[in-house]
Design a protein that fits this description.
Layout (H helix, E strand, L loop, with lengths): L1 H31 L4 H10 L3 H13 L3 H11 L2 H9 L10 H6 L3 H8 L9 H29 L10 H16 L4 H17 L5 H14 L1 H14 L1
Length: 234
């Protein structure tokens, strides 16, 4: 278990760096709207959705209705429906930890869990749980720190909400560098751009997720053949 914990911590270090900064930004933004440490900790513990938490600050401050908040949440986090489908097999035998693993599946955690099997001597199920838990704690810590600093020091919060996009680009770049087969990434990029052109910036997310899933499903056998061939050469 010690080896598993060390491996999980080492793998999660990039997320630690990103989540502390992004969580700090969220906490500062929240404090700038008059919400303190308690709100930051509760939201980061129970919501734990970076981009939605940034949007939630404006929803709270603007007095949005529950219906509007629910629809916004569904739109922003719809991609997790497709993440979940791809994780059914990987999380099949994880036992009692499954509900938490499903809840804690952020973009960055998904990247760590799906970026290859753990090495020999590392417990697979323990790795999934520890990576998920560590990333969650990083986010809570960053949010709490941001709320404290935002309440004590004056900050200009302009542009802070772009930080989630920046972290996603960093994670995508790292996956591109370490992956041998770039077809899934190119499919995602191509379908997203096509849907952006057809549906517009406010409505392209769900059609893009559906399109990406459909194309990758059609290419599944070819992608699996490529993966098997790569492992055979190793």
């Amino acid at each position: 278990m010690v080896k598993t914990a060390r491996y999980a911590f080492a793998r999660s270090l990039p997320v630690l760096a990103g989540y502390l900064v992004l969580g700090l930004g969220f906490g500062v933004l929240l404090a700038s709207k008059g919400y303190g440490l308690g709100w930051a900790v509760v939201m980061s513990t129970l919501i734990y959705a970076g981009s939605m938490q940034y949007l939630a600050v404006d929803l709270l401050a603007g007095g949005a209705s529950l219906v509007a908040a629910a629809l916004m949440t569904l739109t922003v986090n719809a991609r997790h429906l497709f993440y979940g489908v791809s994780m059914v097999e990987r999380y099949r035998d994880v036992g009692p930890a499954k509900p938490y693993l499903v809840f804690a599946l952020t973009d960055e955690t998904y990247s760590l869990v799906c970026s290859g099997d753990p090495p020999a001597g590392v417990d697979r199920k323990g790795y999934f749980l520890l990576v998920s838990l560590l990333d969650h704690l990083y986010w809570i810590a960053g949010s709490a720190l941001g709320a404290l600093l935002g309440g004590a020091l004056p900050f200009d919060s302009t542009g802070i909400d772009f930080s989630m996009t920046a972290l996603f680009l960093v994670v995508m770049t790292e996956q591109w560098r370490t992956s041998r087969d770039h077809r899934p990434a190119l499919v995602g990029l191509g379908v997203s751009l096509a849907c952006l052109w057809v549906f517009g910036a406010s409505d392209f997310l769900i059609p893009a997720m559906v399109g990406i899933t459909a194309v990758l499903t059609l290419l599944r056998s070819r992608l699996q053949e490529t993966e098997v061939s790569a492992h055979g050469r190793d």
